[in-house]
Amino acid sequence: MHQRTYLANEVIFDEGEEGHAIYIVLDGEVAITRQVQGETSEIARLGVGTFFGELALLDGAPRSADARAVRESKLAVFFREDFLELLDTHGRIASKIARQLARHIGSRMREMALAVGAHQHL
Question: Which domain holds residue 41?
């Protein structure tokens, strides 16, 4: 695991960029945004102890949103290559991490489905 510091308003990654890592907020605040009809829309604001970019660890697919530091932020960065190496050398640990990520992703998907359902009833 690596540690990086981002300055206020510094881009962590852009939507469409190939995903290489998961990020954990150690200090600071991160905004997750998307471009919707030409407007920037904030979809999440993340603080200490939260993580983002988790799909990159599993599939390396392009980023689905932008991430930037709201203020100076210290992030732990776990690269996909390190995770794949962990799978080879410590399969049980990597498996536990993957299960936790799957639970987290499933929870986020359920939250989004509920939000979309509530929006459709308005």
Answer: 2-120
User: At which residue do the structure tokens 């799909």 appear?
Assistant: 55
Decide if 90 contacts 45 (C-beta within 8 A).
no
Enter the pTM of the model: 0.76
Cα-based distances in Å from 81 to 16, 33, 34, 52, 62: 19, 26, 27, 17, 16
User: How far is it, in rounded angstroms, from Cα 75 to Cα 24?
Assistant: 5
**CATH number, residue 28:** 2.60.120.10
Q: What is the predicted pLDDT for the residue at 118?
A: 53
The number of domains in the chain is 1
Q: Is the pLDDT of residue 27 over 90?
A: yes
